[in-house]
């Protein structure tokens, strides 16, 4: 039998099977909240060239309990496809890991400026115009 693909291409993202498995282990509504939270905050994630970044986030579940999590993500540009007009289409995002973490670990990520929705200075890409 053939090997299963390591990544699933969904909605413009490459999603690792392990990420999907971790999301499926959660309550469906909490999983959807985390997915929407990630989608909403993708623009704030800095670009990195094939180096993963671990970022923390928090959502509130249906019982008003905060659920803290960490994701491992790579946000890069497809080589040769970037122009100042098509940055969104040239962006390549890989979601490789998701882990539910304790509040202390989440606070540590905040102290390291690794909060998913933190306002960051974006790295401006230089163009040869």
Report on this model:
With 129 residues, the protein is an alpha+beta fold. The protein has one domain (7-111): YaeB-like fold. It has helices at residues 17-24, 28-41, 87-90, 103-111; strands at residues 7-10, 13-16, 53-60, 66-77, 91-100. A five-stranded mixed sheet has the order 1-2-5-4-3. The radius of gyration is 16 Å and the shape is globular. The relative contact order is 0.20. Residues 118-129 have low confidence and may be disordered.
Q: Report the oligomer.
A: single chain
Strand order, sheet with most strands = 1-2-5-4-3
**CATH hierarchy: architecture:** 2-Layer Sandwich
Low-confidence stretches: 118-129
Strand content: 25-35%
Computed over alpha carbons, the radius of gyration is 16 Å
Summed up, the domain count is 1
Class from secondary-structure proportions: alpha+beta
Average pLDDT, to the nearest integer? 80
Quick one: overall form?
globular
Order of helices and strands: EEHHEEHEH
Number of strand segments: 5
CATH topology: YaeB-like fold
- CATH domain class: Alpha Beta
Helix percent band? 25-40%
Terminal CA distance? 50 Å
Q: With helices defined by DSSP (H or I, 4 residues minimum), what is the helix count? A: 4
Largest sheet: 5 strands, mixed
